[in-house]
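Bumping with the actual sequence this time:
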Amino acid sequence: MQRIHFPCRKPPAPGHQEGMALLVVLLLLVVVMILGLSSSQIALLSERSARGDRDYQIAWQSAEAALVDAQFDIEGPGTAQRAAVFAPNNLLDFIDGCGAASEPVRRGLCLPSAIGKPVWLTVDLADLHAPVTQFGDFTQRAFDAGSAGLKPAYKPRYIIEAVPDTQLFSDKSIGADKRFVYRVTALGFGPRDTVQAVVQMIFRKD
């Protein structure tokens, strides 16, 4: 009887199979680690963005509060020190450079610039020693600020420019008293003093 031999493949060595499994596991671990790091970075960026938006909202609300305080400053009551400053035809208390430390009643009162940059672009409102009006200086209104807690780092501040009023029956009318509108520029701080917001309004006193 003739025997027929069929060729057969040798099974892979056990060590070779274990090496491939280990390599696959290591690759999966690397992929999972990369995904985990990416997720952590996305979460950190989202948290940082939310915190930045929160800080900016605090600064913006602080600046808006300064505009309200400036309106009280212009209209009263509680502004006896500057009651005559905002008379319809008064410009004597508004000076170049927005006042000085030696004349506290004039701090933050600015003559508008006839040429060049507007005054509000030349005054560094963030400078703690700048000739600006701080919240409550002339209105006796309180504002909670400081390093403790989630609140503005400093009180908001503002400057007021006396801008000629060109509305009919003001300085355009024959024989009419010269009148002014007030351009108020306010700066508010966030919990960190590097977070700042600037707002502006034009106010006409009745």
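The tokens above came from a reply further down the thread. Helices lie at 14-75, 119-122.
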